[in-house]
Automatic annotation (TrEMBL):
Pfam families tied to this protein: GntR, UTRA
UniProt protein name: Histidine utilization repressor
Keyword terms, alphabetized: DNA-binding, Transcription, Transcription regulation
Domain of life: Bacteria
Residues in HTH gntR-type domain copies: 20-88
CDD domains cross-referenced by the UniProt entry: WHTH_GntR
GO molecular function annotations of the record: DNA binding; DNA-binding transcription factor activity
Annotated GO biological process: L-histidine metabolic process; negative regulation of DNA-templated transcription
Lineage: Bacteria, Pseudomonadati, Pseudomonadota, Betaproteobacteria, Burkholderiales
InterPro entries, per database record: Bact_HTH_transcr_reg, Chorismate_lyase_/UTRA_dom_sf, His_ut_repres, Tscrpt_reg_HTH_GntR, UTRA, WH-like_DNA-bd_sf, WH_DNA-bd_sf
């Protein structure tokens, strides 16, 4: 059979394995031609009848193979036009920025929050360093407490670079949360998350209505837009009331590894 055929050399006894179904062999044949570079994204592949002649299998087998490869995103089929190698999709590592109010409401619980501080102030050394600003630079500072069914579950302590969000403090934070305003106004191109288990400061414990000896999970987030720091925020969660987690697919794990 020619090199486009599906016949394979007989394996040695130690290599024997259950043979692939014919449609799976067709799929492997197509993938091989894509990986070799013979067929590139956007190329139109031969018609079903041409593949029948090349591969020596039924049209039903070809149709099933093409259908499954289309469902898997390898091919794109257009009725009356033909079947094409799917264009490569951009891939990125996603680090989700979750809005706690949306999460709480999704659980069917009551959400509320209070702004404890909204001011412009000179940045402390750790804040200016985190935002890439000169020592003592002017920054926006907000502190708010998020509640689930009236119970504090998160303390948000956020600093914002005025250069990228000059109208931040002009917002009515009773109508829009600080995180929502930033998310919609200055979309983050890069995000850094660091989580630590800590004991709360006395001030944090008071705002969260917990004892100073109660362990908390603290998420520190920095975001950038066009390589300029946007925000430096600390989110403190009482360990007995809240937990941090995520769900992702094995595909996303492979992309991030």
């Amino acid at each position: 059979m020619n090199t486009n055929g599906l016949s394979n050399p007989a394996p040695a006894p130690s290599e024997a394995a259950a043979p692939l179904a014919r449609y799976e062999r067709v799929k492997e044949h197509i993938r091989t031609r894509i990986l070799s570079g013979e067929w590139r994204p956007g190329d139109r592949i031969p018609s079903e009848m041409t593949l029948v002649g090349e591969l020596g299998v039924s049209r039903m087998t070809i149709n099933r193979a093409l259908r499954e490869l289309t469902e898997q995103g390898v091919l794109t089929r257009f009725s009356g036009v033909g079947t094409f190698i799917a264009e490569e999709k951009p891939q990125s590592t996603l680090l989700m920025i979750a809005h706690i109010g949306d999460e709480i409401r999704a659980r069917g619980h009551e959400y509320g929050y209070s702004i404890m501080l909204a001011a412009r102030e000179a940045a402390a050394s750790d804040v200016s360093a985190a935002l890439g600003l000169a020592p003592g630079a002017s920054v926006f500072h907000v502190v708010c407490v998020h509640r689930e069914n009236g119970v504090p579950v998160q303390l948000e302590d956020r600093y914002v670079n005025p250069e990228v969000a000059p109208h931040f403090l002009e917002q009515d934070f009773s109508a829009v949360r600080p995180s929502e305003y930033l998310f919609n106004t200055v979309p983050a191109h890069e995000v850094e998350h660091v989580v630590d288990a800590v004991l709360p400061s006395r001030a944090d414990a008071k705002l969260l209505e917990i004892g100073a000896d109660q362990p908390c999970l603290t998420l520190v987030r920095r975001t950038w837009a066009n390589n300029v720091a946007v925000t430096f925020a600390r989110f403190v969660h009482p360990g007995t009331r809240y937990r941090l987690g995520c769900r992702f697919s094995s595909d996303s794990m492979q992309r991030q590894s």
